[in-house]
Amino acid sequence: MSLSQRSENAILTAPLVLFLLALLGFPTVLDVIYSLSDVSFETLRAPTFTGLDNFRAVLADPDFWKATWFSLKFAVLTSVAECVLGLALAIYFSPILRRAPWMLAILIMPMIIAPAMMGLMYRLVLHEFIGPLPNYLYNWFGVSYGFLTAQNVFKTIFVIETLQWTPFALLLFHMAYESIPEDIREAASVDGTRGWRLLTRIELPLMLPTLGVALFIRFIDGFRVFDNIWTLTGTGPGGSTTSLSIYIYVAFFRSGEIGQAIAASMILFAAAFLVLFVAARRGRGKETA
What distance in Å separates the CA atoms of residue 258 and residue 173, rounded to the nearest whole number? Predict the structure, then answer.
């Protein structure tokens, strides 16, 4: 590449680089400073440098590890359930959607609703005293079931999250399933490969990249879950529904521990970056293999 081409590329990319530095660089530097300081809302302009004390306090906090375990368990279970259900529904509804593509818009309607609104809606529907669902269960079947109690709240939010975001997996898998060339299916049919063997030996292997992308996206989204759980249960009975995002929010806005909240967010960012880095390296390794 000649010197003039390099200069031209530098001039063309300079506005984007400056924009990213202004948008991301300053907040990142400020977060690093605050994470290494004793800072509150009263001392935002004059934080006291304390080194790694905030990180030590976060890592020594049992609530942080409890929130981490909740987020990890919630992300794994919901992402797997959503992808399994989405894959099954995509295959089951494939003939119907080929004849009536407009039905796809109906099937993906739950994911259009804002998660916070979904949480508020289910908070009213499942409320122990005023919720219609507990009322009907008791009046019709004599069953008294506390959907938001400490024993059942995790199952409740797991079902709600799965119901809302399974359509996302359904959409991805439907597009991947329909993109499989028909001549491959026809050739397999000529060789006697049909039904379950066709699905497991030909169609699913061709859909594996989409399955990996869907699992990864839903895992990340489940791990950082905040709004629907916060509006539905808050931190939950005994802190049973405190995700990492809720832990950071409570530490920042409720407790005023800004330094510890930002330190926790930096740990979360480092963990997410490590996962992305490993996934990118493995993906690149498969491409070059």
Answer: 42
What are the backbone angles phi and psi of residue 193, rounded to the nearest 5°?
-95, 110
pTM above 0.70, yes or no: yes
- Alpha-carbon distance 89 to 114, whole Å? 23
Cα(38)–Cα(36) distance, integer angstroms? 7
- Alpha carbon 45 to its chain's center: 34
* Alpha carbon distance 49, 67 (integer Å): 27
DSSP reduced 3-state for 212: helix
Q: Which long-range contacts (CB under 8 A, 24 or more apart) does 218-222 make?
A: 218/75, 218/78, 218/79, 218/82, 218/83, 218/165, 218/168, 218/169, 219/75, 219/76, 219/79, 220/75, 220/272, 221/75, 221/165, 222/71, 222/74, 222/75, 222/76, 222/78, 222/79, 222/161
> Quick check: 58 and 267 in contact, CB under 8 A?
yes
244 in Cβ contact with 168 (< 8 Å): no
Reported in sequence order, the residue ranges of the chain that DSSP labels E, i.e. its strands, are: 37-38, 48-49
Task: Show Cβ contacts of residue 126 under 8 Å, excluding neighbours closer than 6 positions.
Answer: 133, 134, 147, 148, 156
Q: How confident is the model at residue 240 (pLDDT cuts 50, 70, 90)?
A: confident
pLDDT in tens, 125-149: 988 888 888 888 888 888 888 888 8
Which of 156, 157, 132 shows the shortest CA–CA distance to 243?
157
Give pLDDT tens digits for 185-230: 777 777 777 777 888 888 888 888 889 889 988 998 898 889 889 9
